[in-house]
Design brief:
Keywords: Coiled coil. This protein is mainly alpha-helical. It is built from 1 helix and no strands.
Length: about 80
């Protein structure tokens, strides 16, 4: 047999259900916002990581170029000293 409940209890339960549904909607909206922001940050991090890798490669190439020039100058300086 069903349990009898008063009209006040039914009204209170309906109010609780409405409040919980609104809270759920708010939480779902917050979850969507946080998920969007997370995806945006992941995209930006990936972009910055790629930029960093390109800069690192450019720096490495420049460093190697300077070393080759330095080695070349050392060789030329040595040849000039031999001729003196």
């Amino acid at each position: 047999t069903p349990t009898a409940i008063s009209i006040e209890e039914v009204t209170e339960l309906k109010a609780t259900i409405n409040r919980l549904e609104k809270e759920k909607e708010g939480l779902e909206l917050n979850l969507q916002k946080v998920s969007y922001k997370r995806n945006e940050l992941k995209f930006l991090l990936n972009k910055k990581t790629k930029q960093f890798e390109k800069s690192k490669e450019a720096f490495k190439a420049e460093k190697e170029k300077k070393k080759r020039i330095g080695d070349c100058l050392t060789g030329v300086t040595g040849k000039l000293k031999e001729h003196d």
